[in-house]
Amino acid sequence: MKPVRVGICGLGTVGGGTVNVLRRNLAAITARAGCPIEIVQVASRSQPETLDITGIEFTTDVFAVANNPNVDVVVELMGGYDVARDLVLKAVNNGKHVVTANKALIAVYGNEIFEAAASNKVIVAYEAAVAGGIPIIKSLREGLAANKILGVAGIINGTGNFILTEMRDKGRDFADVLAEAQALGYAEADPTFDVEGIDAAHKLTILASAAFGVPLQFDAAFTEGISKLSTVDVSHAQELGYRIKHLGIARAQSDGIELRVHPTLVPQSQMLAKVDGVMNAVLVEGDAVGTTLYYGRGAGAEATASAVIADVVDIARAIHSDAEVPVPYLGFKAESMADLKVLPIEEVVSGYYLRIQAKDHPGVLAKVASILSDNHINIESVMQKESEEQNGLIPMIMLTHTVKEKQINEAIAQIEALDDVVGEVVRIRVECFKG
């Protein structure tokens, strides 16, 4: 049977892993695809010294791959925005199928790319863009197709999860753990995308579109990072029976969808709270199936290569069955996409953890409780600690019942205005998930 011919652009960690896994498991992959899959060309800024590409044409020009008439599928593994966008659109307009692991590309330019792909009747596949080797896109688009998806929540950045795990287990400061994460290769020299939630927001944007059938809306996502988290709050959360996780959360509401990334207190008894280190996990709630959880390695050479090659196999099957685009790009036909707005964070309902630094004067707790009550915010629990900084200030830790964010914002402003309260109130959202 005629082979499906692949060109790979980018021979970094994932590109090298893709070459190695495809060669090592070629017999099984061929059996699953129903035809041979051959790497005929690779492109990179320089020829790799440690990767065996014997018998494969090498070029430093990625666009040569997109223009190569002998390439059926272009695999984009370079990352970044502009060059990757131009490459993918060139390949699509040349009638080639595309596989990408580039979450930023899909989150920001996906609507444009999918429209071009539909016009050219080619497939653009992106399983590897979200949660590495976890097949979450396939699960949302295919395995859960019978369900109305109610919500998605996940630990979808391993770097942030590693940092929070070390802060919790060893009492280390954020900056100290970040330096180790960089030394281990978990975090980039500029860690902004990881620790400020941008990487997770890219992935959550894609998950939300596949879950709810809405256009990609990365610019509307609310993003809050973990760089300001203190080991004090991590410790207090433990005492209250919670763990702090950096979550991406998307929920369908009657008037729109929530799309938010932020530190979150999760009850210790729940599965998401038990996901540690660099591992990823995505929880999906469907109206028919209930709650399902997908767990595994969210990054790494071969874990991500697993998802890349699975997409190539799907394309190979489609090519040999003469199916143009067997599964809609975001799981829903373009004409069936919903025009739902992303709700502003002020309209989101959540519970809240509050840490208030107060002078050791009588009646402060009563004043704070009165402010919360006046804003229709119920207190679930209160914990007062002795001064942790030998500065005469008493930390008050509170958990509230669920309330709209705009109410907690108003209450926090009033609390910070009290003469007996020093500094800003620390606020972390609290979520309890079904199942």
Word description of this protein:
It is elongated and about 80 Å long. The chain has 3 domains: 4-133 and 301-336, NAD(P)-binding Rossmann-like Domain (Rossmann fold), CATH 3.40.50.720; 136-297, 2-Layer Sandwich (Dihydrodipicolinate Reductase, domain 2); 348-430, ACT domain (Alpha-Beta Plaits, 2-Layer Sandwich), CATH 3.30.70.260. It is α/β, with parallel strands linked by helices and 435 residues long. It has 14 helices and 17 strands. Strands 7, 8, 9, 10, 11, 12, 13, 14, 15, 16 and 17 form an 11-stranded mixed beta sheet that branches. Strands 3-2-1-4-5-6 form a 6-stranded parallel beta sheet, with helices on both faces. It has helices at 13-24, 26-33, 62-67, 82-93, 103-120, 136-143, 158-170, 174-183, 192-195, 198-212, 231-239, 301-320, 364-374, 405-416; strands at residues 4-9, 37-43, 57-59, 73-76, 97-100, 124-125, 149-155, 222-223, 242-253, 256-267, 279-286, 290-297, 349-359, 379-384, 393-400, 403-404, 426-430. Helix 1 (13-24) crosses helix 12 and helix 4 runs parallel beside helix 5 (103-120).
Can you tell me the CATH architecture of the largest domain? Answer: 3-Layer(aba) Sandwich
Alpha-carbon Rg, integer = 24 Å
In percent, how helical is the residue content? Answer: 25-40%
Topology, number of strands: 17
- Class derived from helix and strand content: alpha/beta
Q: Could you name the CATH class of the largest domain?
A: Alpha Beta
Short description:
With 435 residues, the protein is α/β, with parallel strands linked by helices.
